[in-house]
Write a structure and sequence with these properties.
Blueprint: E1 2-4, E2 9-10, E3 13-14, E4 22-24, E5 34-38, E6 48-53, E7 65-72, E8 78-84, E9 88-91, E10 99-108, E11 111-115, E12 119-122
Antiparallel strand pairs: 1-4, 2-3, 5-6, 6-9, 7-8, 7-10, 10-11, 10-12
């Protein structure tokens, strides 16, 4: 934290300090969000649930929100959604059976910080139990 007072000066010397003191906090962009993972309780056919933890450092300024980016295959990343205040998100309308790679970025008053570690998730549900199971031994 830096604090400033202003004085003026002319040929006769310095004035007294102004009565207003200004404080400025030196901040940086946040570090990467942590523990990006699949929320298996939400992930199903065409839907992927994501969870993550706040960055280890907000850079000295509160995290405002998060941005989630994704890619499929060897494509580059595209922004899926911005402005997420929570540390979880459900991506829907995805191609069932496709694998998506996600990353999350935190934003504070200085902008977006570092990307989280990437996680790849299959947009599919666990299979249901087999039906009509029978012993066909002769």
């Amino acid at each position: 934290m830096y604090q400033f007072k202003v004085e003026s000066r002319n040929a006769f010397g310095y004035s007294s300090s102004s009565s207003n003191e200004v404080s400025i906090r030196a901040a940086k962009k946040p570090t990467a969000p942590l523990n990006l993972a699949n929320d298996a309780t939400i992930t199903a056919s065409g839907i992927i649930g994501l969870t993550w933890s706040a960055p280890s450092s907000n850079g000295g300024s509160a995290v405002i929100d998060y941005q989630i980016s994704f890619k499929t295959g060897t494509d580059g990343f595209s922004v899926l959604v911005s402005g997420i205040a929570a540390t979880s998100y459900t991506a829907s309308s995805l191609t069932s059976g496709a694998t998506y790679t996600f990353k999350v970025t935190a934003r504070n008053e200085l902008g977006f910080g570092e990307d989280s570690a990437e996680v790849s998730i299959l947009a599919a549900a666990k299979p249901t139990a087999p039906l009509n199971l029978a012993n066909n031994a002769a």
